[in-house]
Every structure is written in C-alpha cells, then in structure tokens.
Amino acid sequence: MELKPEICLKYESVITFKTDEATQYCTSIEFTKFPGMDDLDKKSEDIQRRFADDKKGDDDCVTKLNKPVPLPPYVRSQVLQAIGGEQIDRKLKVDIVFVQLGNDENSDPLLVAYDCTETPRGPIGSAKYALVNSESGGNNINPKAELKAFVNCFFGENTKIPQYFERTARIHHEIQLLSYKVEGNKTVSSTVSIMTTWYRHHAGEFALVLPISRFPRAGEMAKHAVVVGSYSLEDTPSASLSTPVWENLDSLQNALTCSGSKTTLIRGQPGSGKEVYAHALHYGSGKPKDAKFKMRAVAGMEHDTLRQTLFGRSIDGVIIPGLISEAEGGSLFLDEFDKVHEDADGFYSELLRVLEADEYVPLYGRQAEKVTKVDWILAGAFTSMRTVEALPPDFWSRLTHEINLKNPLQERGSDEYTSTLFCYFFFSFIIKKAEELLESDSADVFQFLKTPLSYESKSLHRLLFADRSPNEDDPWIPCNELRELAKRIAMYTKKYVVCRREEKQMDKDKLGSVVRHTRPVFASILTNEKKKFGQMMAAAWQSENEGVANDYKPSKDDWYKLIKEGQQSIILNPEDKFDSIRGIRQAARVSFDKLYERAIAFGEGFKWSDNIKNALSAAIVTLDVTRPGVKADEVLMKNQNYNEEYHDQLTKHFIESADIGGGKSD
Fold it and tell me: Does the global pTM surpass 0.85?
C-alpha cells in the first residue's frame, strides 16, 4: 500500500537578500491542494496555469499575482547563519511545528517548535521553543501569519485558511543557495530558492502536542513528544498552555542553547518524562545524525558492576569498552542515577573525578583512558533511596545545567490537561497499531485511518471517530465518547494519599490519633471536589443512608467500624502523592487494548456506549497498581479508600455512576 503524506500546500520561491532587506518572488506553485476547500482548489489550478504561461522567474509574474510572497524572518536568519561561517552551506532543511493557544487567533499567541536546521555536513544550531504572536519581530514571526499572507497574496484578500491550519501545522522549508556576493569578509547579498511545504499535524489537532527533536518524516508520529497544554472543546474551542510544561521546556531551552560539552542533571518523579527530555537534549543540540545516544538504567547496580558498565574492563591487556567509550562524540544517559546499590555510594565520588579530569581507568586496567566529547545526562527522582544531599558537595560544580521537571498533573485545575494527555496517548496507540497493519514504510498512517479499507483499520476508525466520519476540512478531534472517558480518568486522578499500615488490635477509646490523621484529609477532598463527586463519595461511604449531605464527615464510630473491618489496621503517617504521566499512559494503553479487542470482536456491531465502562474499570485498576509510592506494606487511599474492601466499593460506585456513552459525536 502506497499512501503519500498529506501535502496541503507546496510552493517554490526565489529570494534575494541584501544587507538589510530582502525581496522575493514566487517562481512556481508546484502543487497546491486544500482538502475540502473546493474554491481554493479552483483558484490554485488557475494560478498554476498562469505560471505555466510565464517564463520562470519573470518579473511580470509578480505583477500579475499582486505582490511578492512574504519572507519568514526565521528562515532568513538560518540562511544568514549558513552563509556567515567559514564553510558555506548551499542546502538547508528547516522544520517548524506550531500550535495555537487561546481561542482568539488574532490576539492569542502560538507555541512554536523549531527543529535543528539540517545541512549536508550535519545540523546547525539547536532546537528551539518559543511563544510568538502576529506582532512579534525578529526571528519569531507567527507561522500562521505567514500562511495567511501567502493565501491573501495569491487567492485574494480576506481568504480564509482551512480549519485544520487554524490550530496547528507543520512547515518544511528546503533551501538552496543559488548565488552570493562577498565584499571584504562580509556577505552583502545572496539569492536562494525555497521550496515550502505545509503539512497537517494530526497529533496536534487531536491533542496539544509538539514533537521533540528530531522531527519524524511527514505522515509519521513522533517517537517522543510533549503535550504542552489542554484543549477545551466545549462551546467555544480553546487551548491553554500548562505552566509546569512551559517551565520544563524553558529549562530544556537553556540547556540546548549552551555550546560545548554538557553535564545535565534531570530531576523528576517516576513517570515524569525524564527519558523524553534526555532525547531532546541529545537530538536537539545540533549533534551529527550519527552521534550515538547511549542509555542505561543503573538502579540496583553494585559498585564493580557500575565501573565495568561505564569504564569497561581490561582482560590480558585488551580493553573491553564501556558505555563512555561507546558514547564518544554523543551523549550518555544514566537513568535512575539515585538508585544505585547501597554499596555503590563511593561511585558518585569516582564519577566526580571522571567529570573533573575527563579520564577514567577501566576495571582491572592500569592506564587511564580519555573521555572524548561526551555529554553526560544524569536522571533520577532523588526522593526515596537517596536525596540530592547524598551527592558529593563538589558534584554540583561539575553540572552545566539542571532540569527540575515539574508534574503538570499536580497543577491546580489540571483536569483538562489530564484529559488531553489521556486522549493523546490513546491516539498514539491507535497510530501505532495502524503502523503495524501498514505494509509500506512510506505510507501515510493518517490517510490509512481516514479512508479505512481493511477490517482492522475500520475497527481503529471506530475507536477514533465513533459513528462519524470527518470531512476533508475537519480537524481531527477526539469523539465525544473518548472525551468523556478521559474526563472520568481525570476525575479519578486527583491527589491520593499513601499511609503506612500496621496490623493491631484496636481499642475504640484510643482512636483519637487515627481520626486526627485521617478525617481532615477526607474533609478537604470533599470540599475541593465537584459537588456531584463529593455526594458520590459520601454515598459510597454510607450507602445505606439516603440524601447524605455534601459536607458529611465520618464519626469516630464510623472510623472504628472501617478499621475493624479492614483487618484491624491502624493508618499512620499519611503522605500526599500525585499521579504521573506514565500512569496516564498505562491507563490509556489498557483502555485502548480493551476497546480494540471488543471492536475487532463485534465489527460493525461495536458501540462505544456498550464498552466504555469496562475500559474505565481497567484504566482505574491500572492507575491503582502503578501509582508512585505504593508498596506491599502500604495501603493506597484514593479519595479515602482506606482499605481494599472500601476501595472496591467506591470504585464500583464511581464506574457505575458514570453517565457516559450513548450520545452522538460532534
């Protein structure tokens, strides 16, 4: 099966740069197509005929087409950088992805991701993330404003751009240097040919997603990406940027723009995306394509095992290389750096000497080996086995950057972000399954899903769009049923509490300390939750009573009954915890597996409404068993699930009360 990437607009132009200005004229529109926009398609056909009648590059062509095509300042800056060095690059490739924030395209900013600029000798510069608007000067022009200017230039003033480009798009520039003029040591003018192609960014339409460098080919999903905010599809669609995610990207940006060798410490809770940011540091820093990225989780490794893994070993004078040698010219990522074996504390001091001297001695070796151009990326949570204070004091002086990843699920009012995150992961599993079904590596998986032909692809189409089929011009958005499933997951992923449990015979008169620990937590959650959810929790606690008040608080007798039925457990030392991005991903995984299995089994008879509660139940079980901080001798309490019996009772009530499914999709 051969499905080419969905190209929505492609044009070639020639630009002449002078000292402080640029003139540009369009020489051809090689292929122009706006799916679903018949009026623009007809106009583009007319323009192409006019181009065919003109000599390529004829100035009369510009006159007929009203005015020159505007030049993106970011592209110009990359060209000037390419021709300003000792070695001039005659060919460049520039990739940009943007997502629209807010609900007013004329005043709200865009979040833009710039990939490394590719040249025949390797990438130049680094990846970049920026908030821009239509008023921005310098290099950060609004890419959507660029598209609007082009459309207005060729199709007439006030021409609307397609809906799918209103929210997000991917722009690919292929630039070729035709000529340049040098006076002294300065290039004063140059002429370049630019082939610009606009692609749909389906993942960005479905969820607020930006890819991590390096960007995949058009028509493919990014292996590593970041959900940068939340979509609200109620009434007036809008998008909001997650403050913790933006702060994480800003820290990444600071590390990427630093030249020279780097030693970066990434701190974050389990499942916070440390591996994603490690990949971004390597692939977004302008390293050659063949630069190696070596990764190893070092949790539980003993001292000698660590030394052999990193430094290699000497056998009869022959050096068996370790990861440091294998990562030469690239990056070495040590994950779970805080969880090495307890006998390996001395390894931190040994590694510090390696960072200071740029040399090491292989295990059983006698001669020091040099560390050659290796960027170190060290990652860990530093909250359980070891804290940052356990590291040698001088260790911090060897770090060039520290990225302290913040958990966006911990932000107040993060329900919409959690829903968007769940939808993105669900979408990514659909895409992954579709890629497995495709026979050709060059096929466009999005085209494959939009026009399904096989039994399996039709099942995926039902999970993606439910009972509707989007028009050519429609953005790809989650169906109502998936959005409602995601909302319920978001409700369940509030802050939870982990407590130590001890098995003891309890005396009813000695319960005061237990009540002081637990009751305020329960009361605060009732206060902060939505009214309906608070009533649901209280009803689950006292299901035999009707009309339980929203501010119900359990009495000492209630606590005693609960603890007695919970195998005489006393609850000690409650600790607040928050769900992780990894937990949401795993919940989306089991939900997809459950629904896909049913969609395959029932075919055209599959209905979201008949299967959604099973998917929700599987997701909740997965969240419970994957939550950080939960161990065999601890009891998980989500919304005061103080024992397993009560947890099962509340979960069943939560799922059965879910008023989801059965409605029509947008």
Answer: no
